[in-house]
Design brief:
Blueprint (H helix, E strand, L loop, with lengths): L1 H36 L5 H22 L48 E4 L17 E3 L4 E6 L13 E7 L4 E11 L6 E2 L4 E5 L14 E10 L2 E5 L2 H6 L4
Helix pairs in contact: 1-2
The structure holds zinc ion.
Protein name: Peptidase family M23
InterPro entries: Cell_wall_metabolism_enzyme (IPR050570), Dup_hybrid_motif (IPR011055), M23ase_b-sheet_dom (IPR016047)
Keywords: Signal
């Protein structure tokens, strides 16, 4: 009996500790991402921190969702839109040469696709529906970093952005320039779940010459650092919600 009580209290304590560690791991990840963006962290240190945070987060997913496999196809990240809304021709707006995650806010590349909505007067409302356009998660995952704060004078390029980690396929997706975001770090999201509304936040996206769009990227882990690759084919095959 005593043994049973001991075991029970051990279980209680350990699950409590896990729950606490969870929140702090995601909060740390978010702080870390902000530090990278602001250039407030040395690269060697950043790499070390990234590795340990990532190990923790993927461990958490394994514990909770043992046996879950990646879904075959994505859903398109903008509700009611499909791949013909992607800027450039045949996805040529994507170029990742010179981009490094650890360089933060300073880089010259565009490792992303800009997906444009119908918004002639730039009020962030769809001209056809008169409503905001929903940004949805392309697959199941965990929100690992995001910010819901951005001021028009800020030089931060992503504006109100979201990073989602998809443990089953071991990739990240990134959604930038949102008007409003509806998730927080540590939140689990399902494929197709609304995470934000399309907006014009971010240093360049805010300017009048920029039509309203979602800036969307996908990153694979190479040597434990996110490296962008072109998600054009996945976007083309994605199902429209
Ligand atoms: Zn862009």
């Amino acid at each position: 009996m005593q043994k049973l009580i001991l075991l029970f209290s051990f279980l209680l304590i350990s699950t409590g500790a896990l729950a606490q560690a969870d929140t702090s791991a995601f909060a740390k990840f978010n702080d870390f991402n902000n530090a990278v963006l602001n250039g407030g962290i040395k690269k060697a240190e950043a790499q070390k921190q990234f590795e340990s945070l990532l190990k923790y987060i993927s461990f958490r997913e394994k514990v909770r969702n043992e046996g879950i496999l990646p879904k075959g196809n994505w859903v398109f990240p903008l509700k009611g839109y499909k791949s013909n809304a992607i800027g450039g021709s045949h996805g040529n707006g994507y170029f990742d040469k010179g981009y490094r995650y650890l360089d933060g806010n300073k880089h010259g590349a565009h490792p992303a696709h800009d997906i444009f909505i119908n918004d002639k007067n730039q009020d962030c409302m769809d001209d056809h529906t008169g409503k905001p356009v929903d940004v949805v998660s392309v697959d199941d995952g965990w929100v690992v970093a995001c910010t819901n704060q951005w001021e028009p004078h800020s030089n931060m390029r992503g504006g109100k952005f979201i990073w989602i980690y998809h443990p089953a396929s071991n990739v990240f997706t990134y959604y930038a320039h949102n008007n409003q975001i509806f998730v927080i770090p540590g939140e689990q999201v399902k494929q197709g779940q609304k995470i934000a509304e399309v907006g014009r936040t971010g240093y360049n996206a805010y300017k009048k010459r920029s039509p309203t769009h979602l800036h969307f990227s996908e990153f694979k882990l190479v040597d434990d650092i996110p490296v962008p690759f072109n998600p054009y084919e996945q976007l083309k095959k994605a199902k429209t919600l």
